[in-house]
Design a protein that fits this description.
There is one protein chain. With 120 residues, this protein is of the alpha+beta class. It has a domain of 64 residues: Winged helix-like DNA-binding domain superfamily/Winged helix DNA-binding domain (Arc Repressor Mutant, subunit A), CATH 1.10.10.10. It has 4 helices and 4 strands; from the N terminus they run E-E-H-H-H-H-E-E. The chain has a two-stranded antiparallel ribbon. Helix 2 crosses helix 4. It is elongated and about 65 Å long.
């Protein structure tokens, strides 16, 4: 019955395989916020948790800061800060300038108008 309605699929061979239920969830409705007023901030802040917002604010306040200094000032492990920096870099909110040894992080052109509200 479920096979007839294409709700299950066969996995493996006839001897050792079995059936698996296919889950078909409806696609969520998406809204294009880029056409609305204030879309830059809405699009950039989407998906930023409080930790990312506070890291972004620290970088904006002290341009050129290094990851180790960010970790000390925010009281977070360096690995956590590096992971969060990667998220902000992927979203084009910050960029790295300079060499590995003496370089630091700056707010990028894409994040210039984005100013997160950080609870203290």
């Amino acid at each position: 019955m479920l096979r007839d309605k294409n709700l299950v699929e066969r996995r493996g061979n006839k001897k050792t395989g079995g059936f698996r239920i296919k889950f078909m969830l409806p696609k969520p409705d998406t809204v294009d916020v880029s056409k609305e007023a204030g879309a830059l901030n809405e699009g950039l802040s989407e998906g930023l948790n409080e930790g990312l917002k506070s890291l972004f604010a620290a970088i904006k306040d002290d341009s050129g800061i290094q990851a180790k200094d960010l970790a000390e000032s925010l009281h977070r492990p360096i690995k956590t800060v590096e992971r969060q920096i990667k998220v902000l870099t992927d979203k084009s909110l910050i960029e790295r300038r300079g060499s590995k040894k003496t370089g630091g992080y700056w707010g990028s052109e894409g994040g210039e108008s984005f100013r997160p509200e950080v609870r203290t």
